[in-house]
Design a protein that fits this description.
By secondary structure, the protein is an alpha/beta fold. It has five helices and five strands; from the N terminus they run βααββββααα.
Amino acid sequence: MEFQKQLIALNQSFANKEEAICYCGNLLYENGYVDQDYIQAMLDRDKELSVYMGNFIAIPHGTDAAKKSVHKSGLAVVQVPGGVNFGTQAAPQIATVLFGIAGIGDDHLALIQKISIFCADVDNVVKLADAQSVEQVIHLLTTVDE
């Protein structure tokens, strides 16, 4: 997969997971990957089943019904050094890297699988969370395919 610089955001901070999910959705929307209603579908997906995946990552993506709102497959990568809580105050689930996904057909499944393999090694997540440039993020993620 080719990563688009305009879909990568460094050093972000969010008050809550809803704000974080909307930010990912807006990146996809503003760059022509999805219709605006896809953002609400991303929030709905998290309500149905948490998009927090463990190892400090979350993968916001839309519901199956929202596939009609996807124009092309895309992946937003958002770095959140301070973390954002996808759990509760009593049982926090802190994400420092967010992967916002929009996929045509089953593309989103392939994207989730690649991200899951990469992020299964928490050292890779730490490297992403510490990356100092968009180019560094792209380099870290593209070495997975090699």
